[in-house]
Amino acid sequence: MQHMLSLFRSCVDDYNMIQAGDRIAAGVSGGKDSLTLLVLLAELKRFYPRPFELEAFSVDMGLGGMDFSPIAALCDQLEVPFRKIDTQIGPVLFEHRQEKNPCSLCAKMRRGALGKAITEAGIHKIALGHHRDDAVETFFMSLIYEGRISCFEPVTYLDRTGVTQIRPMLYISEQAVAHFAARYALPVVHNTCPADKHTKREEIKDLVFELNGRYPGLKDKVFGAMQRYPLSQWEIQR
Question: Which residues contact 129 (CB under 8 A, 6 or more apart)?
């Protein structure tokens, strides 16, 4: 816990992610990444010198088979208010539109539902569970599929909604997240999406894994390059 919190707080401080008095929504899908995010934010809240409030939000895509009650129980244990957002995103994508490549549209629809719910609750900052491996994989996805040198930003202000997105787990590897979730028996919710594990991101994940095995430290070097020769908004602020 202390090691993870150290990395987590360093990222928060380096990019000035949290200000005193913030109300922060944690986007909790039920996967290991978002549950780890929730636990670390709840722990950080106990001692961080800039006091902030924390609430958890989960989007139910309407696919059935996903039980969010363990997440609600964890939130109760952490003393974090929890809200489930009911949607019909799944049926719209897979039954009505019959999308063959649904991930991009799904992400937009989930972000829209989440953004609407938090702004209606008077919250204008949301924490997302992207870790270091996500950033490196997104960099490669942009390069290979779009011909751009790009990645999501550690802190993103969405001017259309007035919401600020923060990603405080960027200094933590996926392997560390997996170990943390297992050690603390976090209640991971099985994803019933038909497209799960069959996406372009999974192809890139496999490619990066192979390259990192062939060239040890590749992921660290790419991540460091994103900060040293900074992509937009990646330059450390403190």
Answer: 27, 29, 31, 33, 34, 36, 37, 167, 169
d(Cα 108, Cα 122) in Å, to the nearest integer? 21
Nearest to 7 by CA among 179, 162, 151: 179
Phi, psi dihedral angles at 84 (to 5 degrees): -100, 130
User: In which domain, by residue range, is 53 found?
Assistant: 2-228
Helix (H) or strand (E) holding 78: helix 69-78
**Does residue 223 sit within a domain?**
yes
- State residue 64's pLDDT score: 74
> Is 195 domain-assigned?
yes
- Count of structural domains, the chain: 1
Which domain CATH number covers 156? Answer: 3.40.50.620
Q: Is residue 235 part of a domain?
A: no
* Spatial CB neighbours of 226, under 8 Å, sequence gap ≥ 6: 135, 139, 151, 234
Across the chain, mean pLDDT equals: 91
Nearest to 28 by CA among 42, 7, 16: 42
Q: Quick check: pTM over 0.85?
A: yes
pLDDT in tens, 149-172: 999 999 999 988 899 999 999 999
